[in-house]
Every structure is written in structure tokens, then in C-alpha cells.
Fold this protein.
Amino acid sequence: MAISRWMVSFRFAAIALLIFITLRLLGQSAPAVQPPTRPAPTPAQLAMRAVAEKDHQRLMDLLDIKELRPGANQSLKPPAPNAVNYDEAKANVYPALPDPLRLNNGKRVSSAKLWWTKRRPEIVEDFDREILGRAPANLPKVTWEIVSTTTDKVGDVPVVVKQLAGHVDNSAYPKITVNIQLTLATPANAKGPVPVIMEIAFSNEFMASIARSIPEMMPGNPGPSWQQQVLARGWGYAVLSPTSYQADNGAGLTEGIIGLVNKGQPRKLDDWGTLRAWAWGASRALDYFETDKAVDAKQVGLEGHSRFGKTALVAMAYDPRFAIVYSSSSGTGGAKLYRHIFGELTENLAATGEYHWMAGNFLKYAGPLTPGDMPVDAHELIALCASRPVFIGGGAVNGDGWADPNGMFLAAVAVGPVYRLLGKKDLGATTLPPIETPLISGDIAFRQHSGGHTPAPNWPTFLDFASRYLHTQ
């Protein structure tokens, strides 16, 4: 399966870091590491790009759109056209947010019953039709295989590690084979089923190898790994590889689980995008956890960063079985308000590099419509998670401005009325707190750390928050 440009960059960075650490351990000085120059696209990459551009144009033709507004450009600075905006004074372009507690007929939602029976289904329909796309009604069955079971130590904790493969039934269209990659690690000495935190991330094998290779004390990121932190509480952890069953590019839309259910044909305008498909895989992992005696399947939490922070939030919103979520730096398409014009924009998601995450109908909000025309916004995606606990995290603007930490905070504030209606506590603040100040007293939580685009500094705070809800026997 093709590796995204992000993953290639990550591999270079990880390799450079490992070289640095190895030399430090050997008592040598590390040579100056130059950022890798981006190689010219290979013929295969150019072919994939051409397929995505053709499909993108097909959707525009179906929508009768002549052109889209260009997205924010991180290499430009104001006042250049299309320069990315990092000025909060210029961000509130569309101040009126959709009311999550007002029915489409204008009636106010005044009871939990009205929320569950009327308003929530309306919000789901809007996201299905306009933003994320509809999951097919009759999705194929997934059969789980335990590929291997081994014992290991993560830090000082003995664990049982299972490598799993979810085989998707392709009898309706044998030309496409789909398998879900999943790793599960549980404490070897647990006296019963344990809560599990599942990270949605790139390749299980690659991420696991990096986690094993990097010492506990890393320059600039002191402390144990997130896996060690989870195990220290007596819980287990899992890593799901979403690109194992749906590629992260537009060319892959006729392959993977989306291509399988469409029998290799292009999507309709309201068909599901990659975020929904990745979230579907998270739910299938939870299906497996319900059969594993080492896992307390009623206490499974989700974590994802960046594009997978979006995915984790979508999975939480659509599957009520997940107990808690940590959505890290999810930005546009995740916890950030579309209407908050700061960092990454709707127009960026609608372009050829990311449009596959969303429904085809999403493109129209990058031209001729605007984010202000959307029937929903990110606070209502969070509302679909109610009344379960949600933790939203991000970094400082000078390192994580693209994800718009304040735009995510504002969405967390705006969902408060829904949580209060359902008898839960809101964020407890309406003004962005100082960096490193956690807001975890309610059922919506938020923390902005002083680092860049990384989930690591917020893990301890998230786990403190999660410990209010997850418990070992």
C-alpha cells in the first residue's frame, strides 16, 4: 500500500532521531542533521496523483462547480493572497454557529428524550450527507485471526502481545482483498479483563519498532512512552493501522473497504470518505475486543493525532460503545470549528490532497458556498459523542497553529449546552486558558501544551482525566 508523504517525512525524522540517540549512547557527537530534501515524485506517485485529480474533477463536475477557492498556504505570510492566517483578530469571520439544541423546524430541544429521538438524528444526517459521507447499509463481515501471541516487557511491565488480522469478507467482489491490522497488548499479570486505550496510527510494525528503539528519556520529551503510562495504570493498549484497510489518498477510493463495497466503482456524492472508513475499522476492532477475555470491552478508549485525531473523534461520534476519546491536534475536519478561519481551512480539506477524507458534497463549501453555509460545525461532531467524556488537546500556536488550538477550544465551549442537558459537566471555561493549564473537571476536557504538533505532552493529563471513568477490577 502506498505510503503518504507525511509518513515518508516521519520515517526520515525517526531515522535521524535514532541515529542521534545511538551516537549519544556511544559517547560520540551527532553530526548536523539536515532536513531531507523532498525527492522528485516517482512515476507511481505521479500516476496516483493523476487518478486523484481526475476523481476530484469528477466530483466537481457532478456538483457543477467550476473552481474551488485555494486553501491556506503555509509558505506565504500576510498580506500575500491565500497566506495562512495566524491572527486571532481575523479569525472570527463566521461568528454565528449552528445551535445543537434547536431542531430543523426551529423548536428548542428542552429534554434529553428530544435530543436522542429528534435532534441527534438530524445532526447525524447532516454530517452523513454534507460532511463525512454515509457508511453503506450492508457492510461485509470481518473475521478476526490471532496471527501471533507473544510475551514481552514494555518498560518493567510483562505483557501479552497479540498481532491480529481482520479479514473482510470479499465474496461479493473478490477482486479486492481487505485486511485490518491490529496489535493488542495487555498486562500479563492482570487478574481479569482490563480497560484498553486504542491508538489509531500509521503502520503497527513501524510504530512499534520505533517505540522499542527509543529510550524512555528522550531529548525534549522526557518520561515514559504513552504505552508505558497506560500499562502503569493496569490497563492495556492497542494500535490500529487504518491505512491497512483504506489508503490515505484519492487514488485508493476504488480500493480498500470503500472500493470493496462499491465494487471498484467511484463514490457517489454522499458516499463515505476515508475518515468514516477508518472509523469503521475502529469499530470492527472493538467487535474483536468484545470476544477477548483479556479486555473489558465496555472500557475501551480511543486516541489519535492529527488526521487520526479526526478519525478518533468520528469513531467516537458514530459508535456509542467507545467509552472515552483523546483527540489530539485534530484541526479542521476534527474538533476545530470550520467557521474559525485560522490555520488549516475547509478549502485545504477540499483540495486534491485531502478531499478523500470527506464526502463529495463537502467540496461545495470551498466554492461556491462557504463554511458559514454548513448546516453543522465541529462542536456538533463533539455533541454526537455526548454524554461520554471527550479530551481535546493541541500544542502552542507557534508549533501547532495549523491545527488551530483556539478553534478546537471554542468548539469544546460550544458543545457545553448539550452536555449540561444530558446531566453532565461542561468545559468549565469560556476563555482560552494559559498554555499548560488543564481543564479536566468536567466531562469535556481541554489542554494546550507548549510543544508543537505532537500528542506526547498531553498524555499524562489525558490519562488523569480518563482515570475518572476507566477502572480495573
